Amino acid sequence: MGKNRRKYTRQISMPARRLGKHPNAKIYRFRRIVFTIAVLLTLGFIAKTVLGFFSAEYVSLELSGNMHYTDLQIYDVLGKKLQNIVTDSEEQTAAYLRENLRYIKDAYVTKHVMKRMLTIEVTEREPFALLRIDTTDDRNYSFFLVDNEGHVLKRIDKGVASPSISEQFREMAVLKVINDTPAKVGTAVRTSEVAIGLKILKTALRLERHLARQIKHIDLNDSRKIKLRLNNFRGTVWLAGDAIESGLHHVALFLKHHNTHRPELLSVESEPEHLYLDVRYEDTVYLGGLAARK
Questions:
Q1: Stronger pLDDT, 187 or 182, i.e. the higher one
Q2: Alpha carbon distance 111, 245 (integer Å)
């Protein structure tokens, strides 16, 4: 029994250091705290130095793909965003460019930290057509410059938008719609009429490029009877919104045939509103209004 008692006594007898009662334990703990604080302060100083090192005045900008905007314009718009080149992600910078420069469709941003360089590859929106929006009371209208997705690039002065005045817009087709809500610059017009008009122009460019260059006006207020005005046809072309591809094909064939074999048929001196070419049907083309002469 005595022997067992001595063994038990040895098991519960532990060194003072393991119980945390060593006289230097507080000193060790204090040193650890001081070391941790020093590391944190050092990291904070380094981070602050790096952020200051990459402030806007030290960052060089390398741009590509920009045609409408100069390097200086894009640099100025970025402004304070360059101050946060390290903390802001590339996606944030690209989104900022798209939101603040309406001609920029997309941007790819790359940061070169060691070189102190910001590389930006931009894709700009290209002017595609003029959009004319009339009010329902037919008392007012506005012109807007849009790209091939209906994104409004800018508002156009009515006088400047007139093809007879402005050389800049002379070759652009005009899409006419009726809507009391004006388009907003920097956003896309999400209406079925505008979507159909853009589809007509893009389909013509893809399948009938020669015809696409002749389209000067598209009235989209009735999808069952879309009215096209062409440079090489005195009258109006009637097109259905659900038969765009076949309709444009028929128009191209009709004009090619008659310009080659019977050009006098299209030179009849009738009023334009009385002369029409109806291509709304799949297998039939109607030419009407020839009896209405001056």
A1: 187
A2: 46
Q: CA 88 → CA 51, 72, 80, 168, 264, distances in Å?
A: 11, 21, 11, 40, 67
pLDDT tens digit string along 98-145? 888 889 999 888 877 666 677 889 999 999 999 999 988 877 888 999
Neighbours of 273 (CB within 10 A): 10
- Sequence letter at residue 131: L
- Domains of the chain: total: 3
pLDDT digits (tens, 9 = 90+) for 25-59: 777 777 778 778 877 877 776 665 555 545 555 56
Report whether 130 contacts 177 (CB < 8 A): no
Q: What domain range includes position 135?
A: 127-163+178-188
In a domain, 131, yes or no: yes
> What pLDDT score was predicted for residue 153?
92
Q: Are 131 and 225 part of one and the same domain?
A: no
The end-to-end CA distance of the chain, in Å, is: 138
* Beta strand ranges found along the chain (DSSP E): 60-64, 104-112, 117-124, 129-134, 141-146, 152-156, 174-178, 215-219, 226-230, 233-239, 276-278, 286-288
201 and 260 share one domain: yes
